[in-house]
Amino acid sequence: MRCYWDEEDTWFYSEVDAEGWVIRQVELEGPELTPIAAASLAEWQRARDAGRLDEYDSRFGITAELPVSEWEGHDPKQLTFEEFEELWGPARRQIASRPS
Q1: Structural domain contains residue 39
Q2: Which residue among 12, 17, 36, 99 sits deepest, i.e. has the most Cβ atoms within 10 Å of its Cβ?
Q3: Which of 42, 39, 45, 41 is CA-nearest to residue 59?
Q4: Sign of the dihedral through C-alpha 84, 86, 87, 88
Q5: Contact 36, 27 (CB under 8 A)
């Protein structure tokens, strides 16, 4: 799904599970749609378990902490898996290539 937060000029693109929890999230900011986050819940959990959570958060960000059904002020639109993947890959590569 996708939604726009105009206060920050940020697009949020999310892959959610059957219960509405975000499992992967991409955030694109500004008119250039600069990737500022490309986080995976599974990776975040592994980083937490390995004691590397700060490192992961500072590089890739975090996924939404509430299920989609509890979001306020957002009007999410549906995306296909393919549409999400088209954003995920380039955003991850761009963020991963930045100096840490």
Answers
A1: yes
A2: 12
A3: 39
A4: positive
A5: yes
CB 63 within 8 A of CB 23: yes
Contact yes or no for 60/39 (Cβ under 8 A): yes
Query: pLDDT digit string (tens) for 64-85?
Result: 888 877 777 667 889 999 999 9
Question: Global pTM?
Answer: 0.89
Is 69 within a domain?
yes
Residue 93 lies in a domain: no
CA 62 centroid distance within chain: 7
Closest CA to 62 of 85, 43, 88: 43
3-class state of residue 81 by DSSP: helix
Cβ–Cβ under 8 Å, residues 10 and 31: no
Q: What domain count does the chain have?
A: 1
Q: Rounded to whole angstroms, how far apart are CA atoms 12 and 22? A: 11
* Residue 80 resides in a domain: no
What range does the domain containing 66 cover?
Answer: 2-74
